[in-house]
Design a protein that fits this description.
The chain is an all-alpha fold. The protein has one domain: Up-down Bundle (Four Helix Bundle (Hemerythrin (Met), subunit A)). Helix 3 runs antiparallel to helix 4. The radius of gyration is 15 Å and the shape is elongated. The two termini are about 25 Å apart.
Length: about 120
């Protein structure tokens, strides 16, 4: 678990991309949260039925957003999920759980940091 002072995401590249354009920043945050929520739901559903190829595909789809939003804590987890053949079932299930836990913490943190957008 991470301390409340330690953020699981870094918006430096997002701020640079937005260049003080607040409406654009809001749109990026909304799209990120919506897409990540949806992707996580689909990934968990695929994991629940043992569709590891789909889990791998969804993890791969999530990777660019996680990178842009500086979620470095999941770098190795996502890379591992992209290659399910390298792990036994228990390890893979553990990786899915870790992804779920961290993404939910990131989503909670972003919503808390930007209450004017997520209310």
């Amino acid at each position: 678990m991470y301390s409340s002072a330690e953020k699981l995401y870094d918006l430096t590249s997002i701020y640079a991309m937005c260049d003080k354009n607040s409406p654009f920043m809001e749109k990026l945050l909304l799209v990120f949260v919506d897409n990540l929520t949806s992707d996580l739901r689909m990934l968990n559903a695929a994991a629940d039925v043992g569709n590891w190829e789909e889990v791998s595909s969804i993890a791969h789809k999530m990777k660019p957003s996680l990178i842009h939003f500086g979620v470095s804590a999941l770098k190795d987890v996502v890379l591992s999920l992209e290659h399910p053949g390298n792990y036994n079932l228990n390890q893979f299930v553990s990786l899915v759980s870790e992804l779920d836990r961290v993404v939910n913490e990131v989503l909670t943190g972003i919503k808390s940091d930007f209450p004017n957008i997520f209310n």
